[in-house]
Design a protein that fits this description.
The chain has 233 residues and is mainly alpha-helical. The chain has a single domain, classed as MetI-like fold (Orthogonal Bundle), CATH 1.10.3720.10. 83% of the residues lie in helices and 0% in strands. Helix 3 runs antiparallel to helix 4 and helix 4 packs across helix 6. The N and C termini lie far apart (54 Å). The model has no long low-confidence stretch (mean pLDDT 87).
């Protein structure tokens, strides 16, 4: 292994790669950054899904104030930059919090909730009205019809767009370094400050992002194909 490192350092690019990835076990920094990125993404998508379901139900409610709340929430969140929302959460709403990961998770979760709400609302609206009428004719209450008949179909319809939102959210967490969360992009910046070389650390981070996105795309693609097969049966 030492011979490989010496060979690597004999070239200028090889020396840069060695200093960026292998020197002082900096490869482990990237793994730690990826771990935080995934924690941030998973926490945010859970919050976003919960908020999205509630907001989607509010948006189709017969009670006007609930529809108004849903409209205001989705309009503000979708109409303002994620970076600004993150900084407001960090510098205004949770200024006293020392848990930067929690701050980032809440900010991204609230942001994702508005998009999930629109995804799910579209899925609900795509379900034929006859399904609702059939449920009511069977004696089900309105909430039972929504829970047992409409929502399962809406969720299945929304899965392709929902999985895309997960991937977009994973990439969006790259701005969490603005509030000192040591996610993947922040790690690249930290290594850059020590090696005075921005190209290799950023390329390594980009390749890690690309690998994870390709893996997620493959997994979600298999899930979608399986769901299509179940519909065909």
């Amino acid at each position: 292994m030492e011979g490989f490192f010496q060979f690597l350092q004999s070239f200028d690019l090889g020396r840069q790669i060695y200093q960026t990835v292998f020197y002082a076990d900096r490869w482990s920094w990237y793994l730690d950054g990826l771990k935080l990125t995934l924690q941030l993404t998973c926490g945010a998508i859970l919050i976003g899904t919960l908020l999205g379901v509630i907001t989607a139900l509010f948006s189709i409610s017969g009670f006007a104030p609930l529809r108004f709340i849903a409209k205001v929430y989705t309009t503000i969140i979708r109409g303002t930059p994620t970076t600004v929302q993150l900084l407001i959460m960090y510098n205004v709403i949770m200024v006293s919090s020392t848990n930067k990961l929690l701050v980032g998770t809440l900010a991204f979760g609230i942001n994702s909730g508005a998009y999930v709400a629109e995804i799910l609302r579209g899925g609900i609206m795509s379900v034929d009205k006859g399904q609702t009428e059939a449920g009511r004719s069977l004696g089900l209450k309105q909430w039972q019809t929504m829970l047992y008949i409409v929502l399962p179909q809406a969720v299945k319809t929304s899965i392709p767009t929902y999985t895309s939102e997960f991937i977009v959210l994973f990439k969006e967490t790259s701005i969490a370094g603005l509030i000192a969360v040591t996610e993947l992009t922040k790690i690249a910046n930290m290594i850059t400050s020590q090696t005075y070389n921005a190209m290799v650390p950023l390329i390594v981070s980009a390749l890690i992002y690309l690998a994870v996105v390709m893996l997620l795309t493959f997994v979600f693609g298999k899930l979608e194909r399986r769901l299509r097969k179940s519909d065909a049966r």
